[in-house]
Amino acid sequence: MTDRDSAAIAVDRTQRRARLLAAAAITLRDLSDVFTPLAERFARHGHELYLVGGSVRDAVLGRLGNDLDFTTDARPETIAEILGEWAEAVWTTGIEFGTVSGVKDGNTVEITTYRSDVYDRIGRNPAVTFGDTLEDDLIRRDFRVNAMAVKLNPDGTQEFCDPLDGMDDLLAGVIDTPAAPEDSFNDDPLRMLRGLRFVSQLGFTLSDRTLAAITAMAAQIDRITAERIQVELDKLICGEHPIEAIDLLVSTGLADRLLPEIPGMQLTIDEHHQHKDVYQHSLTVLQQAIALEDGGPDPVLRWAALLHDIGKPATRRHEPGGGVSFHHHEVVGAKMVRKRMRALKYSKAMVDDVSQLVFLHLRFHGYGEGRWTDSAVRRYVTDAGPLLDRLHKLVRADCTTRNRRRARRLQETYDGLEERITQLQAAEDLERVRPDLDGNAIMELLGIPAGPQVGEAWRYLKELRLDSGPLSRDEAEAALLQWWEQR
């Protein structure tokens, strides 16, 4: 690179910096109704107030939301007093860590006293020590792009503060730590996973030294609770660039500690030899599922797309002639999903939904050339239940063949299945398939009390309803009596 090239790059970076800071200033001025009254109140009490961390980063990137982070030299009790005068509601659940929160006009504010923490490097929670300077507070933060601040003055003016050159990292699109990454990650290993989460959310890359430290220290993530890991994983997979972050999760070794089933798919070539391995196929399915989303990131769909084939390594069989099969991998995979997501402390609803999508993702391939009976279509809809729309997206995303003719045929076949579902739903209200007789009618007709026999009869009628469609009351009663006599 010539001196002229270097000079041109420096000029371009300076210009970009100026543009971003000017745009951020406009964004922050739009929040003067929040900032100025707060700054005035802190000033009257003799204290400074700074917007800090992710709020500053997002303001510069033009993505600032309604959750605002601040830091101050005021102690927590004073923060609570000031917020009590201004906010519509205040909560102090984090006051022992120096944090007091409040809400005002739809904005959530979180204000924390300067901290200069000490870590024992056994757990992840520090011995909280309140600091006296902004610089000491910023240097303890996870990454330099999160270590910028904006001083809020009582007269409404603002001053950009960047003692650690976080703006340089932001302009370069790099995630790096304020101090040595080994020290930062030893203090709090969750920062390794947070770094990958920012790759997903911001589209940035890890600095060489940060990547090397995470790879060398991946085992330290074992110090972190499953609940904290789950939160970061959800933010990672719901980012704008999850594929890159998942690749880093695998290449650094973090996935071996947190989600070993994902790197485990690298061992298995898919049966069509269309992709490098099942892992690469799963990333493609995830990307295609994201493209089908409407209404924002859907963590259930995204996890199902990523994990839909994790049962393949355990079901891999070499067939005569050199082929490879993965019979019943959807059944095995659904069980594996349940086990892993429970270990990560996901909610029962989340575990049920993701595992059910994994279990059902192959069902469509039995549809063939559209020869399913109405009964089979009803069962497909009933088994999917409220997950039907997600199942549609997952099945379509799972078509990754490079054979355009085959891909078009698969999509057209699924179009046909969706059309049949729509027709049956209009005629039969498939979303609420129930037996044609309720429990009271069953007890009255059969002359039996409430108990297991009523449930058995109800399930028979439910199966009959799925097989035959809606029946009249006379037809349902006749069928139930016949079943009862032959039972």
Global structural class = alpha+beta
Strand fraction band?
5-15%
Mean pLDDT: 88
Residue windows where pLDDT falls under 50 for at least 5 positions: none
User: How would a crystallographer describe the biggest sheet?
Assistant: 7 strands, mixed
Count of DSSP strands: 11
Tertiary shape: globular
Domains counted in the coordinates: how many? 4
Q: Kindly state the percentage of residues in helix.
A: 55-70%
* Total DSSP helices: 24
The rounded distance between the terminal residues' Cα atoms is 86 Å
Mind explaining what this structure looks like?
With 487 residues, the protein is an alpha+beta fold. It folds into four domains: 10-172, Beta Polymerase, domain 2 (2-Layer Sandwich); 176-258, Hydrophobic Seed Protein (Orthogonal Bundle); 269-432, no CATH class; 439-486, no CATH class. It contains 24 helices and eleven strands. The chain has helices at residues 3-29, 32-44, 54-61, 76-86, 134-139, 166-172, 181-187, 190-202, 208-217, 226-237, 242-251, 254-258, 261-264, 278-291, 299-307, 312-315, 329-343, 348-360, 374-384, 388-397, 404-428, 439-446, 452-468, 473-486, and strands at residues 49-52, 67-72, 89-91, 99-104, 107-113, 149-152, 158-161, 174-175, 205-206, 317-318, 324-325. The strands form three sheets. Strands 3-4-5-2-1-6-7 form a seven-stranded mixed β-sheet. Strands 8-9 form a two-stranded parallel ribbon. α2 (32-44) packs across α4 (76-86) and α15 packs across α20. The protein starts with a helix and ends with a helix.
